Amino acid sequence: MALPLSLSTVVAGFVTVLVGFSSSAAVVFQAATALGAGPAEIASWMWAIGIGIGVVGIGLSLRYRIPVVVAWSTPGAAMLVTAAEGRTMPEAIGAFVVSALLITIAGFSGVFARALHRIPVSLASAMLAGVLVRFGLDAFIAMRTEPVLAIGMLVAYLVARRLSPRYAVVTALAAGVLIAGVSGLLHVDGLGLALATPVWTTPAFSVPALVGIAVPLFIVTMASQNVPGVAVLKASGYEPPVSSLVGWTGTVNLVMAPFGGFTLNLAAITAAICMGREAHPDPAKRYHAAVWAGVFYFLIGVSGATVGAVFAAFPKELVMAIAGLALFGTIGNGLATALGDESRREPALITFLVTASGVTLAGIGAAFWGLVAGVLATFVLRYRRPSP
Q1: How many CB atoms sit inside 10 A of residue 353's CB?
Q2: What angle do CA 168, 272, 53 make, to 5 degrees?
Q3: Left if phi > 0, otherwise alpha if psi is -120 to 50, otherwise beta: which for 36?
């Protein structure tokens, strides 16, 4: 089957991976290092994660014709940095296997889907806007350090939105690369061909590792990643087969765990890039962008340091600006949907503000707590005691 090809979807897929890789790959490297991984093991981790993300994202997007973007759990990787103390690599791998098994069961059993079915669309949309608003702001914060680059990209985006809306993000990215190249901001010194080789680690199972790594990793992945991941799809107008999506991420995670695949989950922030009008004007064809994101992640896995160096070549201000510009439409639509129903406006506003605050409690991120706050507010404001 030929890959669906259009410039806007290819660029949306590329930007999705650019933002995801550049914003959190360092956390994965840090987690692997904390467990005693050397260069070969770190490369194997990226091989497992990249190929796993690519296979699941491409397969599910083509199967269900919706933009399914998969990612690693950044909160999970951050948790590993602290939880790894005193644990060996085989013990950690054993914990990855158990966590993946729990995700698979929670997905295919339907338990996770039934719990999410009760979340109103207004709260899901408010959570989406709250998660993404920081990236919208970053497009302008980038002007502090690289004003010419960031302003040039914004102007290119606005002009293209007027003349050819479908290619606004493409134009902004091209302008950013051109300005960065002329200004000497592209870091191309580290480019070179290098293929990753998988390294098998036989899992070892211990109670401390299961309690200290497996269970927290499962909870953080489900609450901080899969909950907002499903909410993003619903807020964008799709009806995802939740049980199948989550179940398959867990299954492939289970296969990749012995090679360093610590977790695979539905993406939220980067997924929104593939779900906006900038990816494709037709919502039914936006899954093409998710397929291309899967292709680029797969290349990261196979090519190891080569593709990683390509993404690392871009200055952080270019990444900040293009992420914000690519998410303008999604942020606006999320706010419009969240606040459109006056009867649910206050719970949605609370969800938005809690999520945007970035608060983390018990190791679980703001997206989850935003939904909790919104649900509680809805209950308090709308609950009516049944008549006797």
Answers
A1: 16
A2: 115
A3: left
168-209, pLDDT tens digit by residue?
887 888 899 899 988 888 876 666 667 778 899 999 998 888
Q: How many structural domains are present in the chain? A: 1
pLDDT of residue 193: 63
CA 209, 214, 218 angle in degrees (round to 5)?
165
Question: Is 37 a member of any domain?
Answer: yes
Could you tell me which residue, 135 or 103, shows the higher pLDDT? 103
Q: How far is CA 262 from CA 94, 95, 121, 216, 239, in A?
A: 10, 9, 31, 12, 28
386 part of a folded domain: no
94: containing domain: 7-340
Kindly tell me the sign of the dihedral angle through the C-alpha atoms of 123, 319, 142, 167. negative
pLDDT, one tens digit per residue, over 106-126 is 999 998 888 777 777 788 788
Q: Whose CA is closest to 297, among 49, 64, 61?
A: 49
Phi and psi of 223, rounded to 5°? -80, -40
pTM of this prediction exceeds 0.70: yes
| Predicted local confidence at residue 304, as pLDDT | 64
On whether the CB atoms of residues 177 and 318 are closer than 8 A, the answer is: yes
